[in-house]
Amino acid sequence: MNIKHLLTEKTQAAFVALGLPADTNAAVTVSTRVEFGDYQINGAMAAAKLLKTNPRQLAEQLLAQLDLDGIAVKTEIAGPGFINVTLAKGWLAQQLQHASGNARLGVAANTSPQTVVVDYSAPNLAKEMHVGHLRSTIIGDAVVRSLEFWGDKVVRQNHMGDWGTQFGMLIAHLEDKLAAGVDLEQVALADLEDFYREAKKRFDDEEGFADKSRTYVVKLQSGDAHCQKLWQLFIDTSIKHSDEVYQKLNVTLTHADIKPESAYNDMLHGIIDDLKTQQLAVESMGALVVFLHELADKEGNPSPFIVQKTGGGFLYATTDLAACQYRSHTLNADRVIIFTDARQGLHFKQVELVARKAGYLRDATAYDHCPFGTMMGEDGKPFKTRTGGTVKLAELLEEAVVRAKAVVQDKATDLSAEEIDEVARKVGIGAVKFADLSKNRTSDYIFSWDAMLSFEGATAPYLQYAYTRVRSILRRADIADSFTAEFALTEEAEKQLAVKLLRFEETLQQVMKDAQPNLLCNYLYELASLYMTFYEACPILKDGVEPTQRNSRLMLSIFTSRLLKQGLELLGIEVMERM
RNA sequence: GCGCCCGUAGCUCAGCUGGAUAGAGCAACGCCCUUCUAAGGCGUGGGUCAUAGGUUCGAAUCCUAUCGGGCGCGCCA
Asked: Which window residues (194-223, chain A) lie with Cβ within 7 Å of strand B?
């Protein structure tokens, strides 16, 4: 059910009846104020501008052609040509009836599924995952879950950094550790960050170590078996670490989704040869460069895009071009979505330009680089530990759970120790995720423990709490899982809740189109908030409530609980029955 | 120097296919628990939407300039 879509279609039909093109923008939006009804149609004003006619008159003609019988209880023209639509409670009840009998919660079937490749998380395996990886990982995962719920074919691609020059240093250090008899699991890589620091220190300070490291990079990349083996050991251990973080974070990435940089190695020579053959890449100052006139400065100097270093080495530009080829041609993607931080904007603009020219990206493949801002500390500077180091993601998540447990213990009344642990885990992790997901993707945001764990206002715990409240009522009602009844809307709080419940598809579509989970966060918060209002205003199980009203309110509660659970699941946030 | 992003209430943020009186949450203040979980609800106060122009019936939203902040720009990823 997509009310906005329905009203748009109805409006466009009316435009056609007036002799206007069918694609005239109906400009249907949710009403800004309650006295303006539920939805408003603003298209008449823009159309009148094109036709150079009186907007209010056109709105009147449009309204005369607009067939909303049974849907709207009132339509009226206001101001310069707004058409305000007040939906009929009976019609809303019917739509809810239909939606609630549906596993997709009223979301229409996806009649033309797309293949969508989503590149997200992509940690550097040389180091431990830190807070900088949080956004890509959870925003990407929320979009992936949304696309899958809608019914598209999603191919996750965890483009892990496993092939950089630091690996020479790391495997050289690992070799010495192993030679000294240190157990790999227990000591050497127990803390990737320490391991990296040790290796780096030797690289900087120790005689001969840097040279050995550089030699190892070359050997590794030319297929030396010994170096490859050490590298593989390191990579396996590092992946194990990221797996643990994903599990803790409740992220859907698995081993099968890993498509690291090294996976494209075999394609790189071919890409370079092809770029040369197509005369897109030319030699410049010893390197191989594609000059992009589309990105030239005002003097006409084209923007350089280096695809091969002096000496023949490849760069991430080369790998990303190969990834385009693989995703568009081999995976046959209709759309590629890449979640990285905003600083890589220029790079991906260049990648797309080159890939399109060279034919690595088919015209039919949309290429969406979805950037996001930086996580800042409360001082407004990039989020760091007190001593200025990077904050490990694993530690951040642990702290969230510890902090949540303190609050849960304080507030929870009759939960067992095990339940408290579980609730603390779901609340703590959920709070971190919601705080991030609810912000506009593109802007920097300030990470604040106090704000996210105060557990008041627009936070994950608020939504989880709303869910437990509904569930509590349903438990008390003592009804079967298969319980069903007629929706009958009378109170304003019921109607507001109903309209919001029917806006799920509208929200989902927008989340997928713009790759912006914050829209779903806003929606769920508003839904929970309207349920809270309804809960306060409309008694359900109390004495004196008519059976038809009680049953309808139970139906509203059931549907709300299902939607909250499903919506939070799309965000990767868990719910619980009690808290 | 060139380019990208950002500047909205004391704080954190929505809103940005141009639409009516710019919204939430936090913080402040005042109410509401013998009644379905008060991690809640209801209400009050709080704004030159950085600044100046422009486009138009209408601009936080589009365009231009300026100021302020962040980031990027040939061999890291």
From this structure: none
**Which nucleotide is nearest, taking the CA of residue A48 and each C1'?**
B57
> Could you tell me the CA-to-CA distances from A155 to A96, A293, A329 in Å, in that order?
33, 33, 14
Of all nucleotides in the shown strands, which has a C1' nearest the CA of A522? B14
Closest CA to the C1' of B58: that residue is: A80
- Distance CA(A75)–CA(A63), nearest Å, equals 8
Whether nucleic acid strand B comes within 7 Å of the CB of A467, the answer is no
Strand B atom within 7 Å of A345 CB = yes
Which ranges of A66-158 would DSSP assign to H, the alpha helix? Answer: 89-100, 134-150
Question: What are the two backbone dihedrals, phi and then psi, of residue A259, each rounded to the nearest 5 degrees?
Answer: -135, 80
Taking alpha carbons only, the member of A3, A2, A4, A23 closest to residue A13 is A23
Per-residue pLDDT of chain A (579 residues; tens, 9 = 90+): 899 999 999 999 999 999 998 889 999 999 988 889 999 999 999 898 888 888 999 999 999 999 999 999 999 999 889 999 999 999 999 999 999 999 999 999 999 999 999 999 999 999 889 888 999 999 999 999 999 999 999 999 999 999 888 899 999 998 988 888 777 666 556 678 888 888 989 998 998 999 899 899 889 988 899 999 999 988 998 999 999 999 999 999 999 999 999 999 999 999 999 999 999 999 999 999 999 999 887 778 899 999 999 988 899 999 999 999 999 999 999 999 999 999 999 999 999 999 999 999 999 999 999 999 888 888 878 888 877 788 889 999 999 999 999 999 988 878 999 999 999 999 999 999 999 999 998 888 888 887 777 778 899 999 999 999 999 999 999 999 999 999 999 999 999 999 999 999 999 999 999 999 999 999 999 999 999 999 999 999 999 999 999 999 999 999 999 999 999 999 999 999 999
For residue A410 the two structure tokens come to 């304080």
Q: Which two tokens stand for residue A9?
A: 């279609």
Write down all domains in chain A, each with its CATH number in brackets: 3-87 (3.30.1360.70), 115-160+261-376 (3.40.50.620), 166-253 (no CATH), 423-570 (1.10.730.10)
| A45 Cβ contacts chain B strand, under 7 Å | yes
Distance of C1' in B35 from CA in A470, Å: 17
Separation in Å: B45 C1' and A493 CA: 26
Q: Is the CB of A29 under 7 A from strand B?
A: yes
Q: How many residues does chain A have?
A: 579
User: What distance in Å separates the CA atoms of residue A267 and residue A323, rounded to the nearest whole number?
Assistant: 9
- What is the distance in angstroms measured between the alpha-carbon CA of A523 and the sugar C1' of B42? 22
Flag residues 497-536 of A with CB < 7 Å from strand B: 516, 518-519, 522, 525, 529, 532-533, 535-536
Q: Strand B: which bases are under 7 Å from protein Cβ? A: 1-7, 12-17, 19-21, 23-27, 35-42, 56-58, 70-77
* Beta strand pairing call for A335-341 and A366-372: parallel
Instruction: Name the token pair of A59.
Output: 């709105």
Q: CA nearest A331: which of A121, A118, A110?
A: A118
CA distances to A42, A195, A222, A469 from A228, rounded to whole Å, are 63, 19, 9, 55
CB of A315 nearer than 7 A to strand B = yes
